[in-house]
């Protein structure tokens, strides 16, 4: 049995159309995404942060979505393929590395030995982001973690997402 074969995995059928049964919640989360698009943070950075958190959380729908959005916005395959091993890959900037470290610390907030968000991680990210940028980056990480949990809970169907025009 292939794991991705929906016909052979009926337990992976979507559970509900949550955006229809809770439109207010969906609208609130979408408003955060709209704010972040206009926040001034680099779009490529936002795509990478969203994709990395989704990888950590194992959210197939969001991995598919953010990979496609990143590609539509011009991100290279090399940087996307290497994202899971960003520490060893030479093609990320110091600013991106700080953002990815921040993303991992916030996403794995209760991981043993993490101590929530270590001071060293905070100090590193502060060296690359203004206070507003760091607050916005934190909203982005919090938002994608929330979206991951919703998509996982209701089994959003991976592979169905179609990117729109990217800016």
Helices and strands, with pairings:
Blueprint: H1 18-21, H2 23-37, H3 43-57, H4 60-72, H5 77-81, H6 94-107, H7 119-126, H8 131-153
Number of separate domains: 1
Count all strands and give the number.
0
User: For the CA atoms, what is the radius of gyration?
Assistant: 16 Å
Task: Please write the string of helix (H) and strand (E) elements.
Answer: HHHHHHHH
What is the name of the CATH superfamily? AhpD-like
CATH architecture assignment: Up-down Bundle
Instruction: List unreliable stretches of 5+ residues.
Output: 1-6
> Which outline best applies?
globular
User: Which CATH first-tier class would you pick?
Assistant: Mainly Alpha
Question: What features would you describe in this structure?
Answer:
By secondary structure, the protein is mainly alpha-helical. It has one domain (22-153): AhpD-like, CATH 1.20.1290.10. The protein has helices at 18-21, 23-37, 43-57, 60-72, 77-81, 94-107, 119-126, 131-153. The longest helix has 23 residues, at 131-153.
């Amino acid at each position: 049995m292939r794991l991705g074969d929906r016909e052979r995995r009926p337990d992976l059928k979507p559970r509900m159309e949550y955006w229809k049964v809770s439109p207010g919640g969906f609208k609130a989360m979408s408003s955060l995404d709209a704010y972040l698009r206009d926040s001034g943070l680099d779009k490529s950075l936002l795509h990478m942060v969203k994709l990395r958190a989704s990888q950590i959380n194992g959210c197939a729908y969001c991995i598919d979505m953010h990979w496609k959005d990143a590609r539509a916005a011009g991100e290279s395959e090399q940087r996307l393929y290497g994202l899971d091993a960003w520490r060893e890959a030479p093609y990320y900037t110091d600013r991106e590395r700080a953002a990815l470290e921040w993303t991992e610390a916030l996403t794995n907030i209760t991981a043993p030995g993490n101590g929530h968000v270590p001071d060293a991680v905070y100090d590193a990210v502060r060296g690359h982001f203004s206070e507003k940028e760091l607050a916005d980056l934190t909203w982005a990480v919090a938002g994608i973690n929330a979206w991951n949990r919703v998509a996982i809970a209701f089994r959003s169907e991976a592979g169905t997402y179609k990117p729109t025009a990217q800016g």
